[in-house]
Amino acid sequence: MSARMKLLSSALLALLLSGCVSSSQQSSSQALEAARDSFQTVKENADVLRSAPKDVIRAGESLARADRLSSYWGSADDVSHYAYLSQRYSEIAGQNSALSLNQERAAKLELERQRLQLALREAKLLSVQEQSNWLEQMVSLVTSETERGLVMTLGDVLFDAGQANLNASANRTVLKLVQFLQLNPRRVVRVEGYTDSSGDKLENLELSRARAQTVADVLIDLGVDGQRIKVQGHGEGFPVTENASARGRAQNRRVEVVFSDEQGRLGALR
Which residues on adjacent β-strands are paired with residue 146? Predict the structure, then answer.
């Protein structure tokens, strides 16, 4: 009876150990697959490869070691360990890349802001007659007079596709807008953003408002009182033409600046 019990206990212990090993191997396989997916994502991202190459290399080295261990002589714990290291290096690469891109973008925006401020200071030195010429040029940019008031359109060319950052080509237009508001301190503006119908409606709405806010932020950076600026995003609503052609979509991707009257009264919202 005692021998039977020992044999049964040994068999049960072997079964339990087998289950633990199987569970451990399954866990290491899942960790390895997750590491592969993470590494594939960063490896195919040109921005990550450019800004965080060392982290990508470490992720690849750790993944290769986990692969070797899983194929030949390594334990499940060793595979999980190096798979975890690979995934963490991939995550760190992505985070470092995002940080680098944000720093580059901030530096670019700061440089453009400084250039605009310099140009604005130079503009303040103009004579009264030259200031009047600036005002006439500004008025000539107003594309239409509607029930909402005078409306100036900033075209899609002033933004990169799908982005809310202003291009350097916007400088002259923005400076004239600032000058106009300085010469007319009682006027206020409503900055309205629009997109074409491509893509998700909610994302288009967010992009339209982000572009309008970018214009408003630049005006504020250049000395316009933020209380004089209102921001509105309309997404793909209120197109000026059909969206069936590339030209039509480009016309619909725009920011409109609506001017109040000389008493500071804005027309009704759309």
Answer: 149
Q: Who wins on pLDDT, 81 or 16?
A: 81
Q: Is 131 left (phi over 0), alpha (psi -120 to 50) or beta?
A: alpha
CB contact at 8 A, 228 and 189: yes
The CATH architecture assigned to 127-259 reads 2-Layer Sandwich (3.30)
Number of residues written out for the chain: 270
Cα separations (Å) of 255 from 64, 83, 193, 195, 250? 50, 48, 4, 9, 12
- CB atoms under 10 Å from CB of 112, counted, come to 19
Whether pLDDT at 220 is above 80: yes
**In the 8-state DSSP scheme, what is residue 164?**
-
Neighbours of 83 (CB within 10 A): 29
State whether residue 270 is helix, strand or coil: coil
Burial of 269 per CB tally in 10 Å (0-12, 13-18, 19+): exposed
Domains of the chain, residue spans = 22-125, 127-259
- Rounded Cα distance between 116 and 14, Å, is 76
The residue-averaged pLDDT of 102-114 equals 83
Residue 99 to residue 80: CA distance in whole angstroms: 28
SS3 194: strand
Closest CA to 101 of 154, 52, 42, 44: 52
Give 25-38 pLDDT, tens digit per residue.
Answer: 677 788 889 989 99
